[in-house]
Amino acid sequence: MQPFFQDQALFPLYDKVVAQERLSGEDGITLYRSRDLLGVGYLANLVRERLHGRRAYYIYNQHLNYSNVCVNGCQFCAFGKTADDPEAYTMTLSEILEKVRERLEEPISEIHIVGGLHPDLPFSYYLDMLRGIRELRPGVHLQAFTAVEIAYLADLAGLSVADTLQELKEAGLGSLPGGGAEVFSARVRSSLCPKKLSPEGWLKVAQTAHRLGLKTNATMLYGHMETVAERVEHLMRLRQAQDETGGFVTFIPLAFHPKNTRLPDLPETTGFDDLKNLAVARLMLDNFPHIKAFWIMIGPKLAQLSLAFGADDIDGTVIEEKITHMAGAQTPMSLTRAQLLHLIEEAGCEPVERDTLYNVMNS
Ligand code: V47
């Protein structure tokens, strides 16, 4: 029996989804243009359930933003500061280790490390950070440095991207977070982040990591000046890259937060668009195992609902995120395991605690 769609344009997409046929760029545009959110969510949920049943993943993790000093000056970022800004900070290695030491008693399985592009820190700072944390918490997975940071570190170290990743891997790097991809459109980047690593550079780092056996995530920052076509182009480029190297684990759409950025007059994203982005990602990225709703950015309540709109992961405890909160996020700094379980169970899903690479944790 065919489901009912308010939007007639979704019927042919239903046939494709059921037949497990790949959706085209044009289909992506149809999905983004559709006002039938429940219809799009229904399609995304078919894929979600095919892949994961009613399982919903979360992780016991800690975020560590070692420095906000950044030479890139992206318009959409409230986190990055110039070195002379009164709000600029850089943690010393002992401060970083102290942050980790403070939580040694907690069953943290991942430390997520992201920072700005610092003009003065030596490559040894990054290696020592990984080595030091690994020594303190040997069992913890270090998901560190976006592709943008890796390319910057390669320049700093005078090494190829592959050799840089190899050195970081030997020091303890476990995988790369998905940040820095923004939107691959040249039009958007020339306006919002002209100094940032190019899309080709971002994809090259990710794919080099994959070839070295390092998994990576991918993101898309939405809700600023990008068009629907540019969103679809972004997803298609990620899908193409995944076909080639297969090392992407999770895709995370990132909702733009305007406060304290150089785009303060843009409106916040809406619940409709937040759910839509997750659902369309689930449908277009047929070769990505996981779609994550980052509750820090869209709020715990919407992250919970997204479990019926294509997402199978709501990230985790997080603990002290800075990038979104400096851009005005009103969400809490952390959630407890009990709160995560409550959100997932109320949504009719089965909570599964995972590690970074989605191995199931026995907790
Ligand atoms: O690359 C910057 C984004 C990213 C703003 O891999 C903003 O699991 C919204 O990479 N409003 C960094 N977003 C965060 C990141 C991340 C987050 C969660 C999970 C994972 C993962 C990765 O934050 C940046 C940029 O795209 N960002 N400013 C802003 N005002």
Strand order in the sheet with the most strands: 2-3-4-5-6-7-8
Low-confidence stretches: none
Helix content: 40-55%
Strand content: 5-15%
Mean of residue pLDDT values: 96
Q: Give the overall shape, derived from the CA principal axes.
A: globular
Number of strands: 10
Which oligomeric state applies? single chain
Structural class: alpha/beta
Number of helices: 14
Distance between the termini: 41 Å
Summarize the structure in words.
With 363 residues, this protein is α/β, with parallel strands linked by helices. The chain is 42% helix and 13% strand. The chain has 14 helices and ten strands. It has helices at residues 10-18, 25-33, 37-52, 93-101, 123-136, 147-157, 161-171, 186-192, 199-211, 228-245, 271-284, 295-298, 300-305, 337-346; strands at 55-59, 61-64, 110-113, 141-144, 173-176, 215-222, 248-255, 290-291, 313-316, 350-354. The chain has a seven-stranded parallel beta sheet with strand order 2-3-4-5-6-7-8. A three-stranded parallel beta sheet has the order 9-1-10. Strand 3, helix 5 (123-136) and strand 4 (141-144) form a beta-alpha-beta unit. Helix 1 (10-18) runs parallel beside helix 3 (37-52) and helix 3 packs across helix 11. The protein is globular. The relative contact order is 0.16. The structure holds ligand V47.
